[in-house]
What we know:
3-stranded antiparallel β-sheet, Arc Repressor Mutant, subunit A, Rossmann fold, 13 strands, 262 residues, globular, 8 helices, 6-stranded mixed β-sheet
Amino acid sequence: xxxxxxxxxxxxxxxxxxxxxxxxxxxxxxxxxxxxxxxxxxxxxxxxxxxxxxxxxxxxxxxxxxxxxxxxxxxxxxxxxxxxxxxxxxxxxxxxxxxxxxxxxxxxxxxxxxxxxxxxxxxxxxxxxxxxxxxxxxxxxxxxxxxxxxxxxxxxxxxxxxxxxxxxxxxxxxxxxxxxxxxxxxxxxxxxxxxxxxxxxxxxxxxxxxxxxxxxxxxxxxxxxxxxxxxxxxxxxxxxxxxxxxxxxxxxxxxxxxxxxx
Length: 262
C-alpha cells in the first residue's frame, strides 16, 4: 500500500509539473488511480506542501463544480534572490563585456537550466495580471518568452524584423531606434487578437526602442498591454523609450559591479 501511494504521489506531481497553470480534474485523477476523491485530495495537499517548501510554486484547488487543481509556478523570494545573484555574478565576468555598452549573455538564454527559472521569475512577477499571451521579439527573446509562456500556461507571439511567408498575413509597424534609424517589425494577424491581454518580455533594454516597437504592435491590434518584463536593463540612458517595465538585472556601464539585481 505504501509503495502504491508513493508511486501515485510521484505520478500526480509529474502531471502537475508537466502542465503548469493548466487545470487537472481531481475526479479524473481519482478514476485513473482507482481511489476515492478524498484520497486524491489528501495526495494533492501533500504534493502542494512539498512544492511550497521547495519554493518553486504551489497548487491551487478549485472547490467548485469542476473539482480541479492546477500548479502555479512561482519562485520564492529566497530562491529568486539566490538564483539572480548567481546569474549576475556569471555575467559580471570581464570577458563578457562587449563594445557599445553590450554584454554577452546568449549562453544563458539558450540554456534551459537558466531560462526555465527566469521564466518562473517573470511568471511570479506578472501572474496576478492574468495575461492571455506573451509577446517577445526575435532572436534571443524567444527562449525567455517561451519559458514565461509555459510557466503561465499561455501562447507565445514573436515579433519579427522581416516578414516570412510561412507566418501568413502580417501587420507591419515602423519604430525609431536610438540612432535615429527607422526599423520595421512584423506580427502575424493569426497570432494576436484584440481580446488578448499581452505581457511583453524583452531580453535586453538599452534605450527601449525594441520594446517601444512591440508596444506599437499591441496598440495596432487594439489588444491590452498588461505589463513588461526585461531580463537585463542598462542603467544609461536613464530615460527609456518606454516608461513602465520590470527588469530582473541591471547592467551598469560605469564603475562598481557590472551586473546586479535591479
